[in-house]
Automatic annotation (TrEMBL):
Signal peptide: 1-26
Keyword set, alphabetical order: Membrane, Signal, Transmembrane, Transmembrane helix
PANTHER family in alphabetical order: PROTEIN BATD, PROTEIN BATD-RELATED
InterPro entries found in the cross-reference section: BatD
Highest classification ranks of the organism: Bacteria, Pseudomonadati, Pseudomonadota, Gammaproteobacteria, Vibrionales
Transmembrane segments: 310-331
Annotated source species: Photobacterium proteolyticum
Name used for this protein in its record: Protein BatD
């Protein structure tokens, strides 16, 4: 009788020592009997892939481990209370615990290890509060006992991993990341026409990250959707992104799938710009960039799309041709009853190789510009003949013209040289268009004094 009393007293003292020495252990378990089972709970953070200063990177996956152990066995499900931390995404991605046993000092302990993933969204210091754990274990007398245990608070620091990154920029942290894309055309690449569809699918796969943290990849065409014009090469329809998160054998995988359908609006070379995505590699502790190359797709016009694209140019061309035609008709009608301009008569004479008529037009121009009838005396009124560099050319042109050996080119040069001659007191006429008077004899009539 005394030996049984001493054994019960020693067991009670050992249980009290366990409760006092381990503050995270269960102390609130209750049962119908007086003997309460021993339950331990531990919580810690995964220190893998920390920065050089012991901090974690923004958006990095931090795993919170909660381990519940008892020398008895679990008779019911264990429940972890929800955790809410400002500025942090908390996800329990694995709904099942890892069950294992471990022998310590000759006693076999049953363990349940839970994993909760934390994703800090900003720099600073974060504190994981005490987490309530509801357990149900067997008592020494064989009965099932329920209770609640609280973990100890944990604190850790978070900072930007690189000065090249911004707090709210388009980047993410992951241990592994890859990107792929697929193109689907409603026709073959060489036969694509206006109205056909181009489907682009971009998928990003990552490990140790969350799908909602993967930034958008495809560019936003909201403005093009709101203001559809014929100048846009395509009309885009963006599908909602498909997010996926999974866990397999302790590996956390996430993916983001984006898809856009482009309806070709105009022909020509359609250019899809290159895409880039920055990410912090938590395994190598380096900033890396994923990229997709630029894509060119050629589309052909239909007659309707061609008209829609070039209607403005066609309209301007039509108006210009109408104006030119009308101007030509008016000029033709005007010169039916009036002599043609001197330069026009001179050009026609050269075209017909009518040298006597061309020579006559040269002398008329000489008389109109200088009042002279001898070409040799015109150099005193020609600024081009005064220049030393032009004197030789002027003399050569006169000699060839007077010798009757002139060509069309020499006649044209002589015409232009005479255009630069002007006798003082004579009014200079237009350089491009000179209209002869319809009745030149009126200029010789005397004026009446009023």
């Amino acid at each position: 009788m005394a030996s049984r009393y001493m054994f019960s007293l020693c067991f009670a003292l050992w249980f009290v020592v366990c409760l006092v020495g381990l503050p995270a252990y269960a102390s609130g378990l209750s049962g119908d009997n007086a003997e309460t089972p021993v339950v331990e709970v531990k919580a810690w953070l995964d220190n893998k892939n920390q920065l050089d200063d012991g901090r974690y990177a923004v958006n990095q996956q931090v795993i919170l481990y909660i381990d519940v152990a008892t020398p008895r066995w679990f008779t019911g499900g264990t429940r972890i209370a929800s955790i809410e931390i400002p500025g942090m995404i908390v996800k329990q991605r694995n709904s099942l615990a890892t069950n294992y046993s471990q022998r310590e000092e000759g006693v076999t302990w049953s363990h349940q290890r839970w994993e909760i993933t934390l994703y800090p969204q900003q720099s600073g210091r974060f504190v994981v509060p005490s987490v309530d754990v509801d357990v149900q274990v067997s008592a020494p007398d064989g009965r099932s006992v329920k209770g609640r245990i609280a973990t100890l608070p944990l604190a850790f620091d978070v900072s930007l991993p690189s000065p090249l990154l911004k707090q709210n920029g388009y980047w993410l942290s992951a241990s592994e990341l890859m990107i792929e894309e697929q193109w689907e055309l409603s026709r073959d690449a060489g036969e694509l026409k206006v109205g056909d569809a181009i489907t682009r699918t971009v998928t990003v796969h990552g490990e140790d990250t969350l799908s909602v943290l993967i930034p958008p990849i495809l560019p936003s065409y909201v403005q093009q959707e709101q203001q559809q014009t014929v100048t846009n090469p395509f009309q885009v329809y963006v599908q909602p992104p498909k997010l996926s998160d999974s866990q397999e054998r302790g590996n956390y995988r996430s993916s983001r799938l984006e898809q856009a359908v482009y309806i070709v609006q105009s022909g020509g070379d359609i250019v899809f710009p290159a895409l880039e995505l920055q990410w912090w590699n938590t395994s190598s502790q380096q900033l890396e960039t994923l990229s997709l190359p630029e894509k060119h797709i050629r589309a052909h016009h239909t007659w309707r799309s061609w008209l829609r694209t070039y209607w403005l140019g066609l309209a301007l061309f039509g108006v210009s041709m109408a104006v030119l035609s009308l101007s030509g008709l008016l000029v033709s009608h005007y010169y039916k009853t009036r002599p043609a301009p001197a330069w026009w008569q001179f050009s026609r004479a050269l075209g017909r190789r009518d040298w006597p008529q061309a020579r006559l037009m040269i002398y008329r121009r000489l008389h109109q510009r200088t009042g002279l009838v001898e070409l040799a005396k015109a150099d005193q009124f020609c600024c081009c003949a005064v220049l030393p560099s032009q004197q030789a050319k002027w003399g050569k042109l006169q000699h060839r013209f007077q010798a009757g050996k002139g060509t069309s080119l020499s006649f044209i040069r002589l015409w232009r040289y005479l255009g630069r001659c002007l006798r003082p007191g004579l009014r200079r006429r237009s350089r491009f268009l000179t209209l002869p008077k319809a009745l030149p004899q009126l200029q010789e009539l005397p004026h009446k004094n009023e």
